[in-house]
Amino acid sequence: MEKRIVSFSPPDISELEINEVVLALKSGWITTGPRTKLLERRLAAFIETGKTDIDTESEPERWKNRVVCLNSATAAEEMNLRILGIGPGDEVIVPAYTYSASASAAVHCGAKIVFVDVQKNGDAASHMPEMDYEKLEAAITEKTKAIVTVDLTGIVCDYDRVFEIVERKRALFIPMKSKVNPLDALSSRIQQALGRVAVVGDCAHALGASRIVGGVKKYCGAIADFSAFSFHAVKNFTTAEGGASTWRELPGIDNAEIYHMLQLLSLHGQDKDALAKTKIGSWEYDIIGPWYKCNMTDIMAAIGLRQLDRYLSLLARRVEIIKRYDEVCDELGIFHLVHHTPIMDSSNHLYLIRLPGFDEQKRNAFIELMSEQGVATNVHYKPLPMMSGYMAMGFDIKDYPNAYDYYRNLVTLPLHTLLSDEDVEYVCAALRNAFEKTAK
Ligand SMILES: Cc1ncc(COP(=O)(O)O)c(C=O)c1O
Fold first, then answer.
1. Which of 172, 159, 168, 175 is nearest to 252 (CA)?
2. Which residues on adjacent β-strands are paired with residue 354?
3. Beta partners for 201?
4. 203 C-beta closer than 6 A to ligand 1
5. Residue 54 near residue 46, CB atoms below 8 Å
6. pLDDT value, residue 142
7. Which atom of ligand 1 lies nearest, measured to the CA of 235?
8. Which DSSP category does 150 fall into?
9. DSSP letter for each residue of 12-59
10. More reliable by pLDDT, 279 or 408
11. Residue 281 C-alpha to ligand 1 middle, in angstroms?
12. Rounded to an integer, what distance in angstroms lies between the CA atom of residue 177 and that of residue 173?
């Protein structure tokens, strides 16, 4: 077979996205504005949270929306924790097997992170390295304020189980006391309304993924209490950099308050955004709090609007590639994730394989052989307790043996929508060759 160069995850940008960006640039409105607001409404409709009439731009309609677009998932994760009032003295539970942002957002807020190991070989059905739910339950204390569930690779966690656990632990939960500043006052009401540890989804990989939860099919972003999406360049759906904060209906809390507060948090605590200030005579604004700056621009939203038009067909192509990889891995006896089960459809973001009997050294030799054949692979992820920044905080991978075990023989194959059928066959042939050489 003639050598090909197969890159790992290039963005799939068509003329549609390019033309929309040009229109945004020519429109005279390039920061947060009409395109960002339209993307929020369309995403809300897509993931079915706060579904609104997407063509209505009036303020009250906008505030029924349960999506706020931001500049990254990391920012969305932090804003979600901030609106929940999480800070010093609080504990946030995070799986040891994830990307840094799932944990660093809690560190930014001043909370203590508590890592929980994953299940041995991952979830029984999907094999995704989900938290060990017994260990999760045991880790909940009176200080626990949030659990970060990570829908890694686009596979949706067992939220029925997570919600059962937080319900069982209700008696331990102590909501924060109401304070005078508007953010603390809202956070306190949200904590009282929940009356339990908050479930905060890291859905960075999972736009369009769904699962039956409580007997009903729900999309990621509408399952956890608050969720964060990433639209980074390597994700299924991209705005170059970007992300969104989403939430589900919180009983007793007016949705407009959450939408408005997330906007304030992401734009200096300023009560009028640039668009609102352009209205004649509307120069004056207040700063409600000295907050953050992580808004999405209309240039980013322009990419997102046209990506969303194409998104279902992009997902369908990913499913085709996964089916082919599954066939070859099954034939070779290589373990792989199961992206679709009777109760769950993933967003097909990453294709993880685990090479049977391999240690780190053999796995790295396999990666080297793939690379020599022109195929870029990756490892998602080296567990956080193995990273120097987290080791310096006192974490030790010895306390998370299942996370280490999962990582040591793991490889991520290229999975993206610029792969032709011939590329996919080439990756399969390279995989077969590298596996046969290294498995000996
Ligand atoms: C699991 C997970 N969470 C969060 C993030 C952060 O996303 P962003 O780059 O949009 O901040 C990533 C990025 O790769 C991720 O993989």
1. 175
2. 335, 410
3. 149, 227
4. no
5. no
6. 98
7. 14
8. E
9. ---HHHHHHHHHHHHHT--SSSHHHHHHHHHHHHHHTSS---TT---H
10. 408
11. 40
12. 12
pLDDT tens digits, residue range 56-99? 666 666 667 899 999 999 999 999 999 999 999 999 999 999 99
Average pLDDT in the 284-297 region?
A: 95
Ligand 1 contact, 202 CB (< 6 A)? yes
The pLDDT value recorded for residue 179 is: 79
Q: How far is the centre of ligand 1, averaged over its atoms, from the C-alpha of 136 (Å)?
A: 22
Instruction: Tell me the three state secondary structure of residue 291.
Output: coil
- The structure tokens 């993206």 sit at 416
* Residue 241: closest CA among 417, 11, 399: 11
Ligand 1 centroid to 204 CA: how many Å?
5
d(CA 311, CA 257): 30
| Phi and psi angles of residue 409, each rounded to the nearest 5 degrees, phi first | -120, 25
Instruction: Please tell me the distance from the alpha carbon of residue 273 to that of residue 1, in angstroms, as a whole number.
Output: 56
Both tokens of 165, joined, read 């656990």
Between the CA of 358 and the centroid of ligand 1 the distance, in Å, is 28
- The length of the chain, given as a count of residues: 440
Alpha-carbon gap, residue 73 to 281, rounded angstroms: 35
Is residue 333's pLDDT more than 80? yes
**Taking the complete model, does pTM exceed 0.85, yes or no?**
yes
Atom of ligand 1 nearest to the CA of 75: 11
Q: What is the distance, to the nearest Å, from the Cα of residue 14 to the centroid of all Cα atoms in its chain?
A: 24
Instruction: Please report the pLDDT score of residue 271 as a whole number.
Output: 87
What's the Cα-to-Cα distance from 168 to each of 140, 161, 304, 337, rounded to whole Å? 11, 11, 40, 30
Regarding the beta carbon of 103 and ligand 1, being less than 6 Å apart is answered no
